[in-house]
Design goal:
Helix content is 46%, strand content 24%. By secondary structure, it is of the alpha/beta class.
Length: 206
Amino acid sequence: MTNKPQSLAQSDSQRYNTELNILRGELLDLFSRLAYQEGDFVLSSGLRSSYYVNKTQVTLHPQGALLIGQIIFSMLPTDTEGVAGLTLGADPIVTAVSIISAQEKRPIPALIIRKEAKGHGTKAYIEGPSLPAGAKIVVLEDVVTTGQSAMKAVTRLRDAGYTVEQVISLVDRLQGGAELYQSAGLKFAAIFSITEIQQRFRELGV
């Protein structure tokens, strides 16, 4: 009798993982077709690059936002009480995840971290619902290069009394961000590495 429920659980898990892999493949195609560009670029970190990931082409795309919300929601720890990110890049990401969480009957509020405190009203760095002290927040990022942007969000959230233990990114450029998070005691996961996007870009012949 004990084997049947276990078999069903394994079957459900396999089906769930298969569905996630399909979603991930669709999102990879969107990034490769719409966001990845080659040329001569200066990044927000100040570094020069022979390629650029124009992430808003995907994060503000209706299908892209849906896929991002579904995939990141599946990556969140079960005790997550909020998702947050540094404006502007993370704004559509945290929103998409929060909407999917409501559809999944596990509502998770979204917070947006300003780069500078607003000069009026509450003069706050953090916009969004007020959460209990110590609430567990996962920081979301669009593209990680050096990792400094997400660390600003982590610092602001911790200063506000929240608990932050993990950063999740859409894309890891493999240029030191993961190592920075590890040195700060943070878990890190990315949906894609830049090499995956580059490989798919070549396969599609975009």
